[in-house]
Amino acid sequence: MAGRLSWSAISVARRSFGLQLRGSQAQLINSRTLSSALGEEQPNFPGSRSKWTEKLEFVQPDLYDGIPVYRVMNRKGEVIDPAYDPKLEKDTLVKMYKRMTMLNTMDRIMYESQRQGRISFYMTNYGEEGTHIGSAAALDDNDLVYGQYREAGVLMWRGFPLDRFMNQCYGNEGDMGKGRQMPVHYGSTEHKFVTISSPLATQMPQAVGTAYAFKRAQNGLCVICYFGEGTSSEGDAHAAFNFSATLDCPIIFFCRNNGYAISTPTSEQYRGDGVAARGPAYGMATIRVDGNDVFAVYNATKAARHLAVTENRPVLIEAMTYRPTLPSHPTPPHTPGEDRALHPL
Amino acid sequence: MKSLLKLHSLKSFLRPSLPSAIAHGLPGRQSSHFTYVPDTVAEAEGETVRQNLFQSINSALDFALATDDSAVIFGEDVGFGGVFRCTVGLQDKYGKDRVFNTPLCEQGIAGFAIGVAVGGATSIAEMQFADYIFPAFDQIVNEAAKYRYRSGNLFDCGKLTIRAPCGAVGHGALYHSQSPEAYFAHTPGLKIVVPRGPIKAKGLLLSCIRDDNPCIFLEPKVLYRSAVEMVPTKEYTLPLSSADIVDEGDDITLLGWGTQVHVLREVAQIARQQLNVSCEVIDLVTILPWDRQTVFNSVKKTGRLIIAHEAPITNGFGAEIAAAVQNECFLHLEAPIERVCGFDTPFPHVFEPFYLPDKWRCFSAIKKLLNY
Ligand SMILES: Cc1ncc(C[n+]2csc(CCOP(=O)(O)OP(=O)(O)O)c2C)c(N)n1
Ligand SMILES: [Mg+2]
């Protein structure tokens, strides 16, 4: 059945226009049908590599213990293995700390603004400060960022000023986006940050396309694409992973796994070992990292960038975080209208 | 019900004229619901070469790659030339990094294509069939069309062109025959172009590729081999949003695009011979943004308009044209605007000849308008 379908397009073309397959194509088909006969010692099917087995056994999802979570610090903030201390300059460390704090403070003010009806919508970054700042600090500031909507810290790291955050959220005359989009849909050519789009996951295959263009331009840059674990269920996410691997694109997929998509927990989002488990299936180098450990995120992103840029390969990072509800911000009342204000995207 | 009855009587009317292959449902039959009328160019256009539609498209793509190092072409089976041969030889000439296969995933092709354009390169994507463009609908409608708008012109994907084979082919049935122009025409921010033959296709495709907006270029697949013209060998572009008056006339305006233009030209001939009626045939060429002035001027002159397209009548692009023309030309109209289109059913397989707005259906529409 599969074979019939896959050839239907060509056969339609061939039937109507007398399309002849060239010799090399014909050979390809022959070797395909022959492949099972070949390789008595090792199967030789195109598109897979493995060995023969006579045991009727299904591969179960619990085949292995799960992808480990890379960390640098313990819960007290002490570096566990000094070999993995990124040994950042004091100035850099202070800057990282200040930006994480500023992000948190901006969120507080903007969240309140939204609750007070001053702006129509807001999306906090609480609990993900380490993923934003740790990853952004490890990139070249000219690497292009495709975000989802919860990556304000990346922009902040690159120096997007508070004024411009405000201009966008308030849709005022200073908004570079001309007041056309809802709050948090930031964009800046100066900071190499592609304007946020509401439809989830659409940025993912686009990021791959740009990475391909970068590779051809040989500009030494990569593309980083942020997305949530909920968004990883979209068809575009699959398309992006598969295209990036088959087309050898210098891209970092950065999954922010905060456990929820609005109200939907990961247990209702997927059944595998998170998003990282999919990486090897697509042929991607993959790492899972403690998203609350800013050094671990930094190290992972730095290494990923090196792989992407020097080997023209996609790399998948899954950063595990939480989306905390702060004591000062009690769970919002669940009237439909208010829910919409929180998550109208 | 009414249209079914009409269809039934048409069927018996048509049978004698059907080629035996179609009538008997034989494999390998050729569609022949139209007689191709080749375009010609003035001698001043320089050297020409005999080319069919896929060859002239190939020539346009060749120029696009040759003149712009950033240009890349990709899609399903594009590397070996594409199932319709439009990219044949280009990978050998320009290399695998510029002409390449993608995985089998239309939403991925569209999303990737947008990203290539955002990254500053010229992006030419192929959908294997327009029927399979729908998984990419979101990327085209929500992303490509709105990129410049939503970023306040910080980012855009104007260097994007999506090519897709469309339309009836004689035996394509419901999934190899559709004409989806109207779905996309509902989306500000896109340009949609349909060529009627090789000469137009070459110039229009190059214009789309170089236009600063995302373009959808729909290629009537039945013309790939059957449409042959003497095509200028040089590099040239043709204006978008500019309709062509292919036959001048005074009594009635016949408007179509793509393959349908050839149906209408034959209808115009029949009308002249049998009714002594002079038809003005217009090829709309660009569906979005369409050339309103040329159409309005013609209708103001003739007072009658027939719009014909293969896509189903309801919400087809003909509906938009009819609405605009009645608004603009109301007092010039001698009869209601008539649409001769595909029926509101999936595109049929063996009954394709009865589904299409063929010359006889168009001809009877002429008689209806003249007797109004
Ligand atoms: C295509 C699409 N479907 C639904 C939505 C509505 N929506 C906005 S945010 C969201 C949840 C996303 O969750 P996740 O990807 O985990 O990101 P997080 O908010 O946790 O950072 C949904 C369903 C949308 N914006 N786009
Ligand atoms: Mg989430």
From TrEMBL, chain A:
Its cofactor is thiamine diphosphate. InterPro entries: Alpha-ketoacid_DH_E1_comp, DH_E1, THDP-binding. Its EC number is 1.2.4.4. It comes from the Eukaryota. It catalyses: N(6)-[(R)-lipoyl]-L-lysyl-[protein] + 3-methyl-2-oxobutanoate + H(+) = N(6)-[(R)-S(8)-2-methylpropanoyldihydrolipoyl]-L-lysyl-[protein] + CO2. Residues 97-323 form the Dehydrogenase E1 component domain. Transmembrane segments: none annotated. Keywords: Metal-binding, Mitochondrion, Oxidoreductase, Potassium, Thiamine pyrophosphate, Transit peptide. Belongs to the BCKDHA family. Residues 336-345 have a biased composition (Basic and acidic residues). GO terms for biological process: branched-chain amino acid catabolic process. The branched-chain alpha-keto dehydrogenase complex catalyzes the overall conversion of alpha-keto acids to acyl-CoA and CO(2). It contains multiple copies of three enzymatic components: branched-chain alpha-keto acid decarboxylase (E1), lipoamide acyltransferase (E2) and lipoamide dehydrogenase (E3). Residues 323-345 are annotated as: Disordered. GO terms for molecular function: branched-chain 2-oxo acid dehydrogenase activity; metal ion binding. Signal peptide: none annotated. Its main location: mitochondrion. It is found in: Mitochondrion matrix. This is 2-oxoisovalerate dehydrogenase subunit alpha. GO terms for cellular component: mitochondrial matrix. CDD domains: TPP_E1_PDC_ADC_BCADC (cd02000).
Automatic annotation (TrEMBL), chain B:
It is found in: Mitochondrion matrix. InterPro entries: THDP-binding (IPR029061), Transketo_C/PFOR_II (IPR009014), Transketolase-like_Pyr-bd (IPR005475), Transketolase_C (IPR033248). One of its GO terms (molecular function) is branched-chain 2-oxo acid dehydrogenase activity. GO terms for biological process: branched-chain amino acid catabolic process; response to nutrient. One of its GO terms (cellular component) is mitochondrial matrix. Its EC number is 1.2.4.4. Keywords: Mitochondrion, Oxidoreductase, Transit peptide. Its main location: mitochondrion. Its cofactor is thiamine diphosphate. Residues 51-226 form the Transketolase-like pyrimidine-binding domain. It catalyses: N(6)-[(R)-lipoyl]-L-lysyl-[protein] + 3-methyl-2-oxobutanoate + H(+) = N(6)-[(R)-S(8)-2-methylpropanoyldihydrolipoyl]-L-lysyl-[protein] + CO2. PANTHER family: 2-OXOISOVALERATE DEHYDROGENASE SUBUNIT BETA, MITOCHONDRIAL (PTHR42980:SF1), 2-OXOISOVALERATE DEHYDROGENASE SUBUNIT BETA-RELATED (PTHR42980). Together with BCKDHA forms the heterotetrameric E1 subunit of the mitochondrial branched-chain alpha-ketoacid dehydrogenase (BCKD) complex. The BCKD complex catalyzes the multi-step oxidative decarboxylation of alpha-ketoacids derived from the branched-chain amino-acids valine, leucine and isoleucine producing CO2 and acyl-CoA which is subsequently utilized to produce energy. The E1 subunit catalyzes the first step with the decarboxylation of the alpha-ketoacid forming an enzyme-product intermediate. Heterotetramer of 2 alpha/BCKDHA and 2 beta chains/BCKDHB that forms the branched-chain alpha-keto acid decarboxylase (E1) component of the BCKD complex. The branched-chain alpha-ketoacid dehydrogenase is a large complex composed of three major building blocks E1, E2 and E3. It is organized around E2, a 24-meric cubic core composed of DBT, to which are associated 6 to 12 copies of E1, and approximately 6 copies of the dehydrogenase E3, a DLD dimer. This is 2-oxoisovalerate dehydrogenase subunit beta, mitochondrial.
